[in-house]
Amino acid sequence: MLEPATARSLPSTDQLYLRDAYQRTMAAEVIATDADRVALDRTVFYATGGGQPHDTGMIEWDDVRWLVTDVRSDGKLLWHTLALQPGGAGPVAAAVPPIGATVTGTIDWARRHGLMRTHTMLHVMGGVIWNRWGVPATGGNMEPLSARMDFGFGPLPERFRDEVTAAVNAELEADRPITVSFLDRGAADVDPALLRTKVNLIPASVTQVRVVDIVGLDRQADGGTHVASTAEVGRFEITKTESKGKGNKRLRLKVS
């Protein structure tokens, strides 16, 4: 059963990664608990969304360590599912840290950085395909260093695989800087280039839109984590193409 910190409405969780994807640790206050989950007033742990899976890592309090096994958003709160680290519990084997506790958290950086590289690769590829053929993405998902993305193609263009591979790797090697900014929702809504997917997935309740800009190539509304420049991604490869019905092609991808 959810135990609120106070009788008033719960505050939102400050998503630190939206401003700095390279921050790996934080101190935070527990503001709500629910069985094996805690909500914090601030976090570096990314919550599953937009095709990017959640971060994992560790939360510590009073010499007790918990593994973070899932992170999900619910309204304005981000909930962290915890499991006591085997053999790592201190003198207080609590189910979760209590409300009001100040905890420290550390993300699994290797996993996060792999997801950052992968997510940026998807934006670079999306920019290449949009600029060359004007075809939007229709969906996608990723894991560290591998992903799939669907596009609204009928038959794929001739030499599509070779052309996209060469163009994406050229953009990665170009070392384009990547910046993050925030726009009022009204300004974002009147710029169709920012919302290029077929369906606008940004909830109406969002009043500021986060914009990820691969300078000179691709500028998109996006809530995920990215590297600071395209050269940090590595090498791009299309491992497989699949047809997923009329007017929909799936690309399976990897980064190395």
Itemize the secondary structure elements and their pairings.
Blueprint: E1 3-4, E2 14-15, E3 25-34, E4 37-40, E5 42-43, E6 57-61, E7 64-74, E8 77-84, E9 102-107, H1 109-133, E10 137-143, E11 146-151, H2 160-173, E12 178-184, H3 185-189, E13 208-214, E14 218-221, E15 236-243, E16 249-255
Parallel strand pairs: 2-5
Antiparallel strand pairs: 1-3, 3-4, 3-9, 4-8, 6-7, 6-9, 7-8, 10-11, 11-16, 12-13, 13-14, 15-16
Keyword list:
256 residues; 17% helix; 4-stranded antiparallel beta sheet; Threonyl-tRNA Synthetase, Chain A, domain 2; 2 domains; alpha+beta; 6-stranded antiparallel beta barrel; 3 helices
Describe the structure.
It is a single chain. Helices cover 17% and strands 38% of the residues. It has 256 residues and is of the alpha+beta class. The chain folds into two domains: 3-107, Elongation Factor Tu (Ef-tu), domain 3; 112-255, 2-Layer Sandwich (Threonyl-tRNA Synthetase, Chain A, domain 2), CATH 3.30.980.10. The strands form four sheets. Strands 3-4-8-7-6-9 form a six-stranded antiparallel beta barrel. The longest helix is centred in the middle third of the chain and has 25 residues, at 109-133. It is elongated and about 60 Å long. 32% of the residues are buried. The model is unreliable at 4-8 (pLDDT under 50).
